[in-house]
Amino acid sequence: MLKKKTLKKLVIAVMAILVLAVVMSVTKPSVERYNRWALDLVSKRSDPKNPLMGLGLSIFGEGMIDKGTTVSDYGVVRVFHTEILGKRIKVVGILGTFIPMGKPETSPSAHEDFTGEME
């Protein structure tokens, strides 16, 4: 049988894990917040010499990001996979923060012609 001290430590550890899980679940960023964050990131990285790109992003950007994003919700974190302007990126949303997982990659569809075949 477990000693009282060991049992008490176990209960405290389980309670701490449960509190942490609840806090993480409540503070994971929303999809709308991710869309705004991603649009801001894309806008900052867009070519400043191309004002039409900036205008297009300001008008259609959030919709493009929303359409190009799939979200996996794991209870305490959300994982966002986004493909926009020929780039793919994976981002983890946790504790109200977004953490990009690696650098944006060129998406395979950016190399395909209209028939779906590789150039």
User: What does the main sheet amount to?
Assistant: 5 strands, antiparallel
Summarize the amount of helix as a percent range.
40-55%
The number of helical runs is 3
Order of helices and strands: HHHEEEEE
Shape: elongated
**Overall structural domain count:** 1
Runs in which pLDDT lies below 50 for 5 or more consecutive residues are 110-119
Our measurement of the CA-to-CA distance between the termini, rounded to an integer number of angstroms, reads 69 Å
Give Rg in angstroms. Answer: 21 Å
Organism: Cohnella nanjingensis
Protein name: DUF4359 domain-containing protein
What report would you give on this structure?
Mean pLDDT is 82; it is low at 110-119. The chain has 119 residues and is an alpha+beta fold. The chain contains 3 helices and 5 strands. Strands 1, 2, 3, 4 and 5 form a 5-stranded antiparallel sheet that branches. It has one domain (26-111). It comes from Cohnella nanjingensis. This is DUF4359 domain-containing protein.
